[in-house]
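In response to reviewer comment 3 from the previous cycle, which asked for concrete evidence that the modeling workflow produces usable outputs, we include below a single protein chain processed end to end. The sequence was submitted unchanged, and the resulting structure tokens are shown without manual editing.
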Amino acid sequence: MIKVGIVGYGNLGKGVSLALKKAPDIECVGIFTRRDASSVNPLVDLKVYPTSCLNEFKNEIDVLILCGGSATDLPQTTAEYLRDFNTVDSFDTHAKIPEYKEKLNRVAKESGKLAGISIGWDPGLFSIARMLFGAVLPEGNDYTFWGKGVSQGHSDAIRRIPGVKGAIQYTIPKVEALDLVRSGKNPTLSAREKHLRECFVVANDGADKAFIEKTIKEMPNYFADYDTVVHFISEEELKEKHSKLAHGGFVLRSGNTNGDNSHLLELSLKLDSNPEFTGSVLLSYARAVAKMAKEGHSGVVTVFDVPIKYLSPKTEDELISTLL
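The workflow returned the following structure tokens.
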């Protein structure tokens, strides 16, 4: 039995806890929170502890599943946890993944632990699709479209701006760009030409809304390279109209093999709950990290480094006889 701990119990932590019900080979030791543990009411029957107690569980947890945000939380805390535990996380700031990996790799090599980073559906499953499609169809172009849906990382980044009480951000593919790709024309598209980012923000009383909007639109790695629309709304409207967490997207590769023989490869996801699906992906990779750590691996791995068979609770013989 693989034993895990969940660090953080926001939407993603809740998604992981729900995924546990469908993982008979994984047991959760508990939820660890920086909040008052007595104030956390898990959706499933799990014990809740303050993160200050984690050291007491060094020998009981195979993998910590880190459910913090990518903007400030994971860059500040993952290295600390990695000194004593194997970890998996969903760090999703694409431009900063190499820097994040390098920082954690130094810690992991010193501690002898293994960290699985940037694991979700993008980065994560979409990364695998881009690599696989490119290997199979080397002459061509990659295209990734996200949405329409709620981006948890971007929403979290907005909520951390001074003066913001609540926020949700929708990533919306531009239909014209998607149609161009599917037509096989291999267009060259900028980030701005592919997506619109729409933000709904609740400001604190007296907050400088002009400052908030400017900070959002100029935020590097999140909004600066996109057409971004900011709406200021009431807290009631946010709860009433923007409480769903659906998302999805497309990875496409368009190219040819010989002469006029063109091909279009596409993977699409349509998710009713972004955090529940991401939680399920994280849990499957927690299983894989536990297996790799048991074999003596240490350092940092991404989805490119993890044997796909390690994600499944099935044996190799079962995988070959039922899925191959």
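The chain is about 35% helix and 25% strand. We consider this sufficient to address the reviewer's concern, and the full set will be provided in the supplementary archive.
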